[in-house]
């Protein structure tokens, strides 16, 4: 019962820090070269937040664009990045339901890198379906994320499959701590072991998406550079 209340929509949830970074850095919404002023601004705002809360560490969840791995790695050279990955269909199904995503946005409002012609042609061929637009955006986001992660030393980041996390949250968190060089407190570890995660959250797409939507996603051909 307690877990159900904790996951209810009326319970406040952590939000992405993009709006905070945008407030203090004029160029946060742009990708590419990172200037020294932007690096210092991000270090300053994170320092103020951690000092206000009396904490030593800052944990941030970043979703979608802009991808700012290059900026954050310069601002925090000892940071560890955890890339949580998920399969295409459950990701699309989730995107179509979350509050911040506009399923009618289409590809016309994409203002990041150039959309490959093969993708845009498929989007038009598949009746400009919202799930196809969401899938293409997800694949392009993942491409940029992988490009920036590959610029980091291998010991500064790790990849975690969402499906692995929901099936074994305690084991996944232990692995994250190992990569980050953090000791695992026994009390916290026991709490992890007791924590129940809804495993079905990674298969809900099978009923949330219609057969036509699934067929359109299956017919989407991905260029080789989006893996």
Q: Label the structural class.
A: mainly alpha
In total, the number of strands is: 2
Largest sheet: 2 strands, parallel
> Whole-Å distance between the termini?
39 Å
Oligomer: single chain
Number of helices: 12
- Could you report the average pLDDT, rounded to the nearest whole number? 80
Structural description of this entry:
The protein is mostly helical and 227 residues long. The chain is built from twelve helices and two strands, in the order ααααβαααβααααα. A two-stranded parallel sheet has the order 1-2. Helix 3 packs across helix 4. The longest helix is centred in the middle third of the chain and has 20 residues. The model has no long low-confidence stretch (mean pLDDT 80).
Give the secondary structure arrangement, pairings included.
Layout: H1 2-6, H2 18-24, H3 36-53, H4 69-75, E1 81-85, H5 88-95, H6 117-125, H7 130-149, E2 157-161, H8 162-167, H9 169-180, H10 186-194, H11 205-208, H12 211-218
Helix pairs in contact: 3-4, 5-7
What's the quick description here?
This protein has helices spanning 2-6, 18-24, 36-53, 69-75, 88-95, 117-125, 130-149, 162-167, 169-180, 186-194, 205-208, 211-218, and strands at 81-85, 157-161. The chain has 227 residues and is mainly α.
């Amino acid at each position: 019962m307690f877990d159900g209340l904790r996951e209810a929509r009326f319970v406040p949830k952590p939000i992405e820090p993009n709006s905070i970074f945008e407030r203090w850095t004029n160029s946060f919404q742009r990708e590419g070269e990172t200037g020294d002023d932007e690096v210092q601004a991000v270090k300053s705002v994170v320092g103020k937040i951690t000092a206000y809360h009396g904490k030593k560490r800052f944990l941030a969840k970043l979703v979608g664009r802009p991808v700012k791995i290059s900026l954050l790695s310069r601002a925090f050279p000892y940071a560890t990045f955890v890339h949580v990955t998920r399969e295409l269909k459950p990701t699309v199904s989730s995107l179509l339901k979350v509050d911040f995503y506009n399923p009618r946005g289409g590809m016309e409002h994409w203002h990041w890198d150039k959309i490959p012609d093969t993708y845009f042609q498929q989007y038009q061929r598949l009746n400009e379906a919202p799930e196809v637009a969401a899938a293409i955006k997800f694949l392009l986001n993942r491409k940029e994320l992988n490009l920036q992660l590959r610029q980091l030393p291998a010991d500064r980041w790790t990849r975690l499959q969402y499906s692995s996390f929901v099936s074994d949250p305690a084991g996944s968190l232990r692995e994250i701590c190992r990569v980050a060089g953090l000791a695992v407190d026994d009390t916290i570890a026991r709490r992890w072991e007791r924590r129940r995660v809804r495993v079905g959250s990674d298969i809900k797409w099978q009923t949330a998406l219609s057969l036509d939507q699934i067929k359109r996603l299956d017919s989407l051909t991905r260029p080789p550079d989006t893996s």
